[in-house]
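Report of the visiting student (M.T.), summer placement. My assignment was to run the structure pipeline on a short list of targets and document each run. The first record concerns Phosphoadenosine phosphosulphate reductase domain-containing protein.
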Amino acid sequence: MRKTQHRVHPKGCSKHIVVGIRAEESPKRAQRGMLSYNPDGRTMQYCPIYHFSEDEVWEYMELNNLPYPSLYDEGFSRLGCVVCLSSADQEEY
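After the run finished, the structure tokens were exported:
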């Protein structure tokens, strides 16, 4: 079981955004990296589960008794793609 990294606070960043994207979700996300910064260096985006597999995400959630949207129980595999403008195929949703 992978562990998330809990302490990230680069000097100079005034905003920190934590997102749940993973490298295995797409080739573009795999190129991104666990940490990224906007061009002026003031905002850092941190992806603590970047290296997790889908199975590891579910295992982590189960071990920590974390809630999840009931739509997953109805067969949906990804939920954020519905509203994402970068989604490859909007017709799929």
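The beta strands are 15-18, 35-37, 43-46. The two ends are 32 Å apart (CA to CA). I thank the supervising group for their guidance throughout the placement.
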